Predict the structure of NADH dehydrogenase [ubiquinone] iron-sulfur protein 1, mitochondrial.
Amino acid sequence: MAFLARALRQSNSHLSSRCPAVAASCRWIFPTAAAGSSEAGAAVAPADPELPPPREPVGGARVELPPNPEDALEVFVDGHAVRIPKGFTVLQACEVAGVDIPRFCYHSRLSIAGNCRMCLVEVEKSPKPVASCAMPALPGMKIKTNTPVAKKAREGVMEFLLMNHPLDCPICDQGGECDLQDQSMAFGADRGRFTEMKRSVVDKNLGPLVKTVMTRCIQCTRCVRFATEVAGVQDLGMLGRGSGEEIGTYVEKLMTSELSGNVIDICPVGALTSKPFAFKARNWELKGTETIDVTDAVGSNIRVDSRGPEVMRIVPRLNEDINEEWISDKTRFCYDGLKRQRLNDPMIRGPDGRFKAVTWRDALAVVAEVLHQVKPEEITGVAGKLSDAESMMALKDFVNRMGSDKVLCEGNGPNPPADLRSNYLMNTGIAGLEKADVFLLVGTQPRVEASMVNARIQKTVKATQAKVGYIGPPADFNYDHEHLGTGPQTLVEIAEGRHPFCSVLQSAKNPVIIAGAGLFEREDQDALFSTIETVAKKFNVTRPDWNGLNVLLLHAAQAAALDLGLIANPAESIKSAKFLYLMGADDISLDKLPEDAFVVYQGHHGDKAVYRANVILPSSAFSEKEGTYENTEGCTQWTIPAVPTVGDARDDWKIIRALSEVAGAQLPYDSLSDVRDRISTVAPNLIHVDEKEPCTITSEVKPPVKQQQSLPQTVPYPNCHLARSTLTRHVMVLHCATPPVSPLATRSCRLHGACGALPHPAAATARTLEHPPRLFVSVGDTRADRAVCRVRRRVRYEEEDEEDDEEWGHNEDVARMERYTEDARDQALLVKARVDDEVEVVLVFKGFSSSLSGGTAADPARSVLPERAIIQSVDVVKGPFDPNNIEYLEKGLEWEDFKGRLQ
């Protein structure tokens, strides 16, 4: 026994660095010699130990006692008196006392199930151990957590849990961070007595993000309760009984929630793991960096795990005020896009229209020369949706020093309400939404635009039965709501007290109005926000003790841009620009940009704006730099670099600082702290990290709107998985698109600019692009002298057919293209080719058949493409196609014009 105690104390020292909670449990069961216990007596603690010294509460268990003493009670945990609020369970009381009770099914944010029985403790006057997670604490209760009875009971429970559990630890992605591993070592026996055949369970297909190995499942039902209570979907449930009990999806379906990836974190074993991360790395190989997410305006706290120069995964970080401990799927799985189609070197477009890599000195010299050739009023700067405050401050100062005041940010519209911060922030706060009893959503779909805000609303609705009213186009909500109307006229009726929903608002104690930032893009936004303010005043939405008037921003850069004064009119600024500086701005419309305008694109990914750029300046992504961001509730946070920059890229503000020196308008700061000092003079609130500055409430109300329009005309992001340019390069995110992007597109195309997502092959819709196929893209090494076209055969017959790995390109049946004829009227060819190692083209030939059995020429593709083109793949798709119609690249483009564009 002494040998076992020594061995476990050595294991405890190793555990302390990996799992402090389990290490604490091990120290309690097997105290060290320094604690005054002998080795021989360390294995079994006395039944009635003397009063132990006070201990710190277990992480997350700190609690404020209610002001009324009658609402608190006193219990004794291992002889130590603890005061807790009424309603606490025995397990929570133990956590406050500093005792970590083992558990599998219990989760502080989910309902109590009591499935695993691992949390057994001994309670005085109870004939047998009780499940501490489900037992309410009573006044004067004496709880014993370390008696031989409790330890023996946990050991028996652990033996039953391991009875059918496979020995997959060497190949399980949960290894090293598995609760079952840690607790079996701390509380289990050193051997099992089960000698029969272990049961097995068929794996479930939950989609492209969550990998299932259901034989490892211990039926704790955490995932089931999370899906129902937090995600708001009824996708998972418990099926069967006895030894046939298993967790499934009732019917064969995917888990379609935007929060589905969180089941990976809450699963205590390796039953649910990350499919993109499968077999990539062990957790002890990774370096964790605490930072924030910038894919939306929520600013969820995350930890970026990296190995060397590569981001391996993203996991949530606890922040009660913002995202609690959840993150959305687009936040969790966007990291793959950080390494696709990156801009590595400065580039200049030559006379032939092709980009050429140059040095930073040459690129900045060209930009500076053009700056001196244009008038100051013809200079415009545009900050992208992911820009940090430092880079936006530098861009504004630089453009101002060049004599122009035309600096704006994507998404803020022509006339954003920037006079008061309360006009564009979520004044209630994300955590404050839990106090609301009525929600009025105007032109916003939180489930798509800000998943974590939607999760907070869903939590409030489920807990308090709060009412939700919605004005806007039909939308998909995961909680009960009332669709009040689609146009501003409904809002006017509420403002005038003529709508039935007025009675709901009138009876509310803490009503909340959430307006979508998509309203910024409307011409009648002033009248709309004036009407919203009228509703707020009428129904006490804003008062001294409560500000329920909120604006839900869409992008990470919006709030800081408005604080810094980037509020120029986009249409007028672009129309008059002869020098346009795009800092990560890809979605701004350039239709009115003069043909002779000089465009500089500064960003980390090659996207739509690169088509029009004359000079490209590579910058660092959010995971590679330190920057300041302000979320939709006005809380300032920092990103921390997790990996080095790619290639010769630099931070955005450093590029602008270097350009200002070359252009003769040097900015007065040389370090990040200098830039932040400059920010403090313009927007002091951006310096106070993790703090929210109170906003002023206006009392001015403008005349309400009278127009009747759709509100808003379009959804800002119809698909929450494709809400950012970085996300469109992540293959797993494309698989999650709703409606899904065709798998054929994700395999046939490299998703570079013009070769984005193809329509679904069975739908046979036209391939439409907005830009000519002249784009520098990062491509692999290609032999230009390749004489024969080698292709892979992929066939899909019906839209309803299930995907088959053999049919979708994982087979090695490589053939040579044969001459195509118009014999068959039900086939189409999707041909991917490369011209000059830079241009990627996807052609859709309808009405042609292929035997793929041999041959010499690639026709009709060869009749369209120039001789130097290299055909990379040909996909055969069957469907009801018109044999007389050939659709290609751009809809409506004449055949000869199309050929001339490629040559």
Remarks:
- The mean pLDDT is 78.
